[in-house]
Write a structure and sequence with these properties.
The protein is mainly alpha-helical. The chain has 5 helices and no strands. It folds into 2 domains: 108 residues, Methane Monooxygenase Hydroxylase, Chain G, domain 1 (Up-down Bundle), CATH 1.20.58.400; 57 residues. Helix 2 runs parallel beside helix 5. The longest helix is centred in the last third of the chain and has 77 residues.
Length: 205
Amino acid sequence: MDNSPTSLFEGYDEEFKQILGNLKAKLEGDVRTLAGEQRKSLLRTIEGELDEAQEIISQMEVELHPMPASIRGPYSARIASSKADLQKVKKTLKDIQKESQRTDLLGSGTGRRGMGDPSLQDEPYTDDGYDSRSRLLAGTDTLADGSRRLDNAHRIALETEDVGADILRNLHGQRSQLEHTRDTLVVADGNIDRASGTLKKMIWQ
């Protein structure tokens, strides 16, 4: 298993591209075909995936630091490009969310006037109920978002722990090799000393 910074970077970069492609497909296709709670549920799912993509970029930045300065430039440029792509997707999501809120607002007003109650026919529309519901949904979304962030952080911590364990195993193996090499050199040094002594005896004879 190659745990070099460049190899790990490439792995994170590939994962990021897959998530970004799925996000674009959902925003450009799936979201447009849904309405109501189904659309809201998908938008919340997309928010979670955006957080995951952001976490992956953070990991790419972590792997960038130990790279030699001579090769760091292209990888840094790829991170900047990934951040720009992610910002575009975030903007698209915000635009769709605003559009959904306007649609819900208009739908609530129409429903209120369509109840058949004469007392409501000429009553100016107020969105107090809508605001309360929006705040409740926003609070629920915030809790869900926090849970997703914790899950992502936990997953990344586990991955980092695995990488650290692999590095420790490699270091242990390298230490064993160095100790074996040292012992071999000690034996060789002893043999040289004995051979040197034998040669001296032969010379003096």
